[in-house]
Structure formats: structure tokens, C-alpha cells
Amino acid sequence: MNSHRLTSQKQQQAQAQTQAKSPLTGFGPTEETATSPGSHEFAGFFYRADIWLDAHLNPISKNLLMEVYSLEQLPLGCIASNDHLAETLNIGSRTVGRYIKELLADNYLILEDFNGNRRKLRVNLDRLEPRQIDQVAGHFGEPPRQIGNEAGHFGQPTSP
After folding, report:
1. Which listed site, 9, 20, 45, 67, has its alpha carbon 20 to 30 Å from 98?
2. What is the DSSP string of 92-144?
3. SS3 readout for 19-62
4. CB-side neighbour CA atoms (13 Å) of 89
């Protein structure tokens, strides 16, 4: 038997044992369901760069926008109730209502439909104002900005 194949089989067995012991077994997509269309298993929470980098949004607003955006991808769109969003984001239902009202007023969210009982929300991607990655000090090789002047003093440099 080929030693490479034997090693591969041992690695697969070890990986299967590790997965079986994992406390997250049963959560998230499996290899089969992750690639199947229509799979709605929780795979993680990923931010769109334009939402993550919008300097005008606080963390709760970003989380709420990303949840709405994720639900938009479903066939019916985002028709989630405040209670559902509150449970998902681990905040209060009234807090969700206040944030939705504020995001609608600031044009970050669009109310696509409301029939008196159920609403349909959509993220207004045109409204997002992401900072450019290269403008964030200290990121991606950019040296951090120096605080203070050459003499090591803070404030305005003195005139001669």
C-alpha cells in the first residue's frame, strides 16, 4: 500500500474523530448541505465590506443591516419580525424597532412592502459610505500616524 495513501486515510480518520468530539457537531453546514442550493443552515456571520467599513454605523446597526441583507437573499426576501431579529441579534425587540426606524429615516433600509401585518425590508447598498481600506491608519502596511510634532510635544509647533 502506498505510504501517502495510508497517511491520507489516517488523517481522514483523525479528522472524523475530531469532528465527532466537537461541541459544534450538528451546527452549520456539512460538506453535503453547504453546497446544496437552498440550504439555510447557519454557516457564520459575514460582513459585506461596504457595511463593515461605513464609519457612520455603530456595531448594532451593522449587525442589523447584515442580518437584513442575509435574509434578503431568501426567496421571500427579508420579512422577519422584530422579535425574530431581536432573538437572532440577542437584543430587545423594542431596540430592533428603534434601530429599524432610524435606519429607514437615514435611508440605510428601504421598506419595499407593508401590508398592515408584514413588512419587507431591503438594505440600500447605494447609501453605504465605506471608508477606503488604505485610509485606515496602520492597516495593510501603512505606517501608523505619528502623534505629536518632531520635538515630541503635543499640539501646535511653536514658532521660532
Report:
1. 45
2. -HHHHHHHHHHHHHTTSEEEEEE-SS-EEEEE-TTT--BPPGGGSTTSTTPPP
3. HHHCCCCCCCCCHHHHCCCCCCCCCCCCCCHHHHCECCCCHHHH
4. 26
| Global model pTM greater than 0.90 | no
- Helices 93-105 and 59-72: angle between axes, nearest 10 degrees: 80
Would you say 127 and 117 are in contact if contact means Cβ atoms under 8 Å apart?
no
Distance CA 103, CA 95 (A): 12
What the block records as the C-alpha cell of 1 is 500500500
Under 8 Å between Cβ of 106 and 121: no
